[in-house]
Amino acid sequence: MGYNSWFDFGCTDAMNESSIVATADKMVSFGLRALGYRFVNLDGCWLEEGSKGRDGAGTLQPHARKFGGAVGIRRLADRLHAADMLFGVYTDRGTQTCQGRVGSKGFEAADAKAYAAWHVDYVRRACMRRAGMRFGTRCDRELRLPSALSSPYLPLESCCIASS
């Protein structure tokens, strides 16, 4: 159980490292962590927009201004872990997320390595822009992230439903 940034911030500039840290601190101070609410999940717009979402080598690029790039995402994860919280991010199994950020199709292995390097505990993978899929179509068996990485931080596979 935990928190998802979309419901507070959507894709606004308010969804940034300091607001996520403040939210996690409130979860702890209000006693929610002790009740089992340990996940702090970044929803859409944590990556750079469009083609800036990947560098020339295909590596994901967290939003530099909002999160300080890859260094900032790792710093955020470490900060959450120090508070005994868990860190999650959102992506899409196709080529783009709902907000037009890059998806994981064709980059699953590279993305899994990035998530592990950033100490991500959970990856929510949607199927929002899958051409030809009807609403309600299961796509949780397609485009799986590699299940074994040489890191203590293993992204978890999550179930998703197509919504287009």
Layout: helices, strands, pairs:
Blueprint: E1 2-4, H1 6-9, H2 17-29, E2 39-42, H3 64-67, H4 69-82, E3 86-92, H5 108-117, E4 122-126
Parallel strand pairs: 1-2, 2-3, 3-4
Helix pairs in contact: 2-4
The amount of helix comes to 25-40%
Distance between the termini: 26 Å
Main beta-sheet strand count, sense and barrel state: 4 strands, parallel
Q: How many strand units? A: 4
Structural class, from helix and strand content? alpha/beta
Gross geometry: globular
Side by side, the strands of the main sheet go 1-2-3-4
Measured by DSSP, the beta-strand proportion falls in 5-15%
The whole-number mean of residue pLDDT values reads 83
The ordered H/E elements are EHHEHHEHE
Rg calculated over all Cα atoms: 15 Å
Figure out the total of helices: 5
Low-confidence stretches: 140-144, 147-151
Keyphrases for this structure?
about 160 residues, alpha/beta, 4-stranded parallel beta sheet, 5 helices, 4 strands, about 25% helix, about 10% strand, globular
Notes on the protein architecture:
This protein is of the alpha/beta class and 164 residues long. It is 27% helix and 12% strand. Strands 1-2-3-4 form a 4-stranded parallel sheet. Helix 2 packs parallel to helix 4. About 6% of the residues have low confidence.
Summarize the structure.
This protein has 164 residues and is of the alpha/beta class. It is built from 5 helices and 4 strands.
